[in-house]
C-alpha cells in the first residue's frame, strides 16, 4: 500500500489536495452563507416579534380605554390623551425611537393626522391633529386596506430605520395605526460583522480558487513536461541504442581504416612501381615493335648497296676467272665502290643505332633536322610503296628537346599513315609534313589523305592496347607511347583531328600550357 | 481612534447631507413664488447656516431689506418687518404665524412641506401646480 502511494506522482497528490481544499472552502462558504441568512432572519424576527407584542399590548390598552370613536374621544379628553402618551413614553428607547398613533380623516385622504405621540422631547413631539404625510405612503394605506400589521425598511433616508405599522381595529374597521420607528443599528452591526466575515470568506474562497487554478495550471504544465520528458527519454534511449550500434560500427570501420592505412602507403608504392614497370614494359614492347619495323627498313636500305657490292665483287670474280688482266686502276676503282657501299651500310647501321639510343639530356635541334633524319630511315619504304612524301618546312628555329624520342614519335606517325594509306588502297597516297613556329611554340603537322579517323574511335586512339590493325600485328601501343613521350617527357602536346582529306596529327613543342 | 474618526466623518456627512437637502428644497421651491432669480432673505441663525453657500438667496442683515423671511420665530422684529412673508421651519410657527405662507420641517425623521393658500393670496404670490397638492 505504502509502495503504491509512493508510486503516485506528486502532481496527482497535489491535485487531489487542491480539489479537497476547494471543496472544503466552498462547503464552509455555503454553510456560512446559510448561517448568515438564518442569523439575519432570526434577528429581524426577534425584533418584529417583540414590536408586535408591544404594539398588540398598546392596541389592547387603547381599545380598552377607548372602545369606540377614537379621534373624537382623544380630542375631547386631553387628560386621557396625556395619560396614554405617558404610557407610550415607557417604550421609547434608543432602539425604539418614535412611538405614535395616527389616523386618517377619511379613508381616501392622503394625509394622516397625529392622535398620540410618545415623544419625550417637546421639539420632536407632534401636536394632536397635526397633519402628516408619511414617506412610503402606499405601505400606510395598505394597512388601512388589509387591516394587518406590516413593516418596511426606510430606503430613502440616511438613517438605518424600520417602521412597524400596527392597525387598531375596532368593529372590523381600522380606527388608527400604531407606528413604531425602530433602529436596525444593532442588527446592522451584526449584519455588517457577518458581511465582513462573508467578505473574508469570499476572499478565502477566491484565494482557494486561485490556488486551485494555479495548482491545476502547474499540474497541467508539469504533466506536459513529464510527457515531453518521457517522449524525449524514449527517443534518447532509441537514439542512444542507435548511437551505440553506430559507434561499434564506426570503431570497426576505424580499425579497418587504420589497418588499411598501415598498408596503403606500401600498396600505393607497389602500384606506382607496378605502373612504372608496366609503362617500361609497354615502352619496351613498343620499341621492339618499332625495331621489327626498323629491321625491315634496314633490309630495304641494305638491299641496294648489298646488290651493288655483290655485283661489283661478282664482276671482279668473273674477270679473274676469265683470266682477264686486271688493271690496277679498275680494281682500285671497284674496291673503292665496294668500300663506299660498305660505308653506306655502316652509316645506315649508325643511323638506326642512334635512333634507338636513349636521350639522357636535352639537345638543341630544329624540327626540320628531326623530320629529315626520320625520313632518311622511312623514305625507302615509302618510295617502295609509291607513297608521295611532301614537306613544307616553315620553321628553322632550334628547340631544346629529346630529338631521338621526337624522331620515334614522327616515325610512328609516318608509319601509321603509311599503313592506313595501304590498307585503304588510296590511289595517290600522300603524306604531308609541315612545320611552323612562333617565339613560343614549334608546331609539327603530319597528315595523310586516307579519309580520316572514324568519329566513334577518335577519343580512343590514344588509349593503350587500342588498335585498328590487330590483324597486321598492331600492338595498340604506338599512339599511346607517342602521346606519353610528347606530353609527359617532352612537355608538349599531341592532338588529332580530321580534315577534308584525312587524319591530321598536330605535335606542339616548346612552352606549352598543358 | 480610527473608528472615532470614521464616525465623525459619517456624522458630518449626514448633517451636511441634511443641510444640502434643505438648501436644494428652498432653492427649488421658493423662487417659484417670487419669480426672481435671487431673493433677499432675512433668516434666523439656524437657517443662516443652511443658506451660506446658496447662489439664489442673498442673506440680508437688515430685515427691512428682505423680501422673504425664513425661520421659526421673528416676533422680536419691528412691526414693519413682521408684515413680510415668512417661510417657516417648524410646524408650530407655521400654525401660529399669520404671515407664514408655507413651511418645511422634519417630523419623526420625515420631511414635511405645507402651504397656506389664503396667505399666499394675501401676499399675491404665485403657487405652482406641482406645489398646490401641499397647500390648504
Describe the structure.
The complex is a heterodimer of chains A (514) and B (136). Chain A is 61% helix and 17% strand. In chain A, helix 6 runs antiparallel to helix 7 (328-355). Chain A contains 11 helices and 13 strands. Among the domains of chain A are: 2-183, PAS domain (Beta-Lactamase); 360-510, Heat Shock Protein 90 (2-Layer Sandwich). By secondary structure, chain A is α+β, with helices and mostly antiparallel strands. Chain A starts with a helix and ends with a strand. Chain B has 136 residues and is an alpha/beta fold. Chain B has helices at 2-34, 45-51, 79-82, 91-96, 117-122, 129-132; strands at residues 39-43, 57-59, 68-71, 86-88, 100-107, 110-115. Chain B has a 6-stranded mixed β-sheet. The relative contact order of chain B is 0.13. The model of chain B is unreliable at 1-15 (pLDDT under 50). The A-B interface holds A 97-98, 100, 110, 124, 126-127, 130-135, 154, 157-159, 161, 179, 181 and B 14, 17-18, 91-92, 95, 107-112, 114, 133-134.
Give the gist of this structure.
Chain A is α+β, with helices and mostly antiparallel strands. In chain A, 61% of the residues lie in helices and 17% in strands.
Give the helix/strand layout.
The complex is a heterodimer of chains A (514) and B (136).
Chain A: H1 2-7, H2 10-65, H3 70-76, H4 78-89, E1 96-104, E2 112-117, E3 131-132, H5 137-146, E4 150-153, E5 161-170, E6 173-183, H6 185-321, H7 328-355, E7 363-366, H8 367-384, E8 388-393, E9 398-401, H9 403-423, E10 430-437, E11 441-448, H10 455-458, H11 478-489, E12 493-498, E13 503-510
Parallel strand pairs in A: 8-10
Antiparallel strand pairs in A: 1-2, 1-6, 2-3, 4-5, 5-6, 7-9, 10-11, 11-13, 12-13
Helix pairs in contact in A: 2-6, 6-7, 6-8, 8-9, 9-11
Chain B: H1 2-34, E1 39-43, H2 45-51, E2 57-59, E3 68-71, H3 79-82, E4 86-88, H4 91-96, E5 100-107, E6 110-115, H5 117-122, H6 129-132
Parallel strand pairs in B: 1-2, 1-3, 3-4, 4-5
Antiparallel strand pairs in B: 5-6
Amino acid at each position: 500500500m505504502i509502495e503504491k502511494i509512493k508510486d503516485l506522482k506528486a502532481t496527482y497528490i497535489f491535485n487531489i489536495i487542491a480539489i479537497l481544499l476547494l471543496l472544503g472552502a466552498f462547503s464552509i462558504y455555503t454553510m456560512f452563507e446559510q448561517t448568515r441568512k438564518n442569523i439575519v432572519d432570526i434577528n429581524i424576527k426577534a425584533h418584529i416579534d417583540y414590536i408586535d407584542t408591544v404594539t398588540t399590548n398598546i392596541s389592547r390598552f387603547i381599545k380598552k380605554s377607548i372602545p369606540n370613536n377614537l379621534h373624537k374621544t382623544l380630542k375631547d379628553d386631553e387628560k386621557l390623551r396625556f395619560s396614554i402618551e405617558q404610557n407610550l413614553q415607557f417604550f421609547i428607547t434608543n432602539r425604539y425611537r418614535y412611538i405614535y398613533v395616527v389616523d386618517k380623516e377619511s379613508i381616501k385622504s392622503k394625509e394622516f393626522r397625529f392622535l398620540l405621540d410618545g415623544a419625550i422631547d417637546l421639539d420632536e413631539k407632534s401636536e394632536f391633529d397635526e397633519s402628516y404625510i408619511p414617506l412610503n405612503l402606499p405601505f400606510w394605506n395598505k394597512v388601512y386596506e388589509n387591516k394587518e400589521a406590516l413593516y418596511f425598511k426606510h430606503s430613502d433616508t440616511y438613517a438605518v430605520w424600520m417602521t412597524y405599522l400596527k392597525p387598531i381595529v375596532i368593529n372590523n374597521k381600522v380606527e388608527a395605526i400604531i407606528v413604531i420607528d425602530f433602529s436596525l443599528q444593532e442588527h446592522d452591526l451584526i449584519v455588517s460583522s457577518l458581511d465582513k466575515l462573508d467578505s473574508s470568506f469570499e476572499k478565502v474562497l477566491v484565494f482557494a480558487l486561485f490556488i486551485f487554478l494555479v495548482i491545476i495550471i502547474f499540474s497541467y504544465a508539469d504533466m506536459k513536461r513529464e510527457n515531453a520528458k518521457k517522449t524525449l527519454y524514449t527517443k534518447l534511449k532509441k537514439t542512444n541504442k542507435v548511437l551505440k550500434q553506430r559507434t561499434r560500427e564506426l570503431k570497426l570501420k576505424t580499425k579497418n581504416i587504420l589497418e588499411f592505412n598501415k598498408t596503403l602507403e606500401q600498396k600505393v608504392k607497389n602500384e606506382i612501381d607496378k605502373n612504372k614497370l608496366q609503362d617500361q614494359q609497354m615502352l619496351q614492347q613498343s620499341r621492339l615493335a618499332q625495331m621489327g619495323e626498323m629491321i625491315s627498313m634496314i633490309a630495304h636500305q641494305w638491299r641496294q648497296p648489298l646488290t651493288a657490292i655483290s655485283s661489283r665483287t661478282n664482276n671482279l670474280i668473273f674477270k679473274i676467272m676469265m683470266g682477264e688482266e686486271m688493271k690496277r686502276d679498275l680494281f682500285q676503282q671497284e674496291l673503292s665502290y665496294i668500300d663506299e657501299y660498305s660505308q653506306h651500310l655502316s652509316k645506315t647501321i649508325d643511323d638506326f643505332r642512334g635512333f634507338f639510343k636513349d636521350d639522357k639530356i636535352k639537345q638543341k635541334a630544329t624540327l626540320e633536322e628531326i623530320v629529315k633524319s626520320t625520313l632518311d630511315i622511312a623514305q625507302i619504304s615509302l618510295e617502295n610503296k609509291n607513297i608521295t612524301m611532301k614537306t613544307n618546312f616553315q620553321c628553322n628555329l632550334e628547340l631544346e628537346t629529346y630529338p631521338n624520342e621526337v624522331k620515334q614519335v614522327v616515325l610512328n606517325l609516318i608509319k601509321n599513315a603509311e599503313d592506313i594509306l595501304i590498307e585503304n588502297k588510296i590511289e595517290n597516297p600522300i603524306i604531308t609534313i609541315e612545320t611552323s613556329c612562333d617565339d613560343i611554340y614549334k608546331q609539327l603537322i603530319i597528315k595523310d589523305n586516307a579519309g580520316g579517323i572514324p568519329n566513334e574511335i577518335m577519343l580512343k586512339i590514344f588509349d593503350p592496347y587500342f588498335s585498328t590493325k590487330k590483324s597486321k600485328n598492331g600492338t595498340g601501343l604506338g599512339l599511346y607511347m607517342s602521346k606519353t613521350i610528347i606530353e609527359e617527357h617532352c612537355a608538349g602536346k599531341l592532338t588529332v583531328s580530321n580534315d577534308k582529306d584525312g587524319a591530321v596529327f598536330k605535335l606542339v613543342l616548346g612552352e606549352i600550357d598543358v | 481612534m480610527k473608528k472615532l474618526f470614521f464616525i465623525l466623518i459619517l456624522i458630518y456627512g449626514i448633517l451636511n447631507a441634511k443641510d444640502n437637502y434643505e438648501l436644494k428644497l428652498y432653492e427649488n421651491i421658493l423662487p417659484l413664488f417670487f419669480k426672481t432669480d435671487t431673493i433677499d432673505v432675512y433668516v434666523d441663525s439656524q437657517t443662516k447656516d443652511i443658506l451660506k453657500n446658496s447662489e439664489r438667496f442673498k442673506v440680508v442683515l437688515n430685515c427691512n431689506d428682505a423680501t422673504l423671511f425664513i425661520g421659526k420665530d421673528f416676533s422680536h422684529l419691528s412691526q414693519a418687518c413682521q408684515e413680510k412673508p415668512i417661510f417657516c421651519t417648524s410646524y408650530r410657527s407655521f400654525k401660529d404665524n399669520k404671515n407664514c405662507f408655507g413651511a418645511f420641517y422634519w417630523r419623526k425623521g420625515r420631511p414635511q412641506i405645507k402651504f397656506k393658500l389664503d396667505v399666499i393670496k394675501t401676499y399675491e404670490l404665485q403657487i405652482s401646480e406641482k406645489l398646490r397638492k401641499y397647500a390648504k
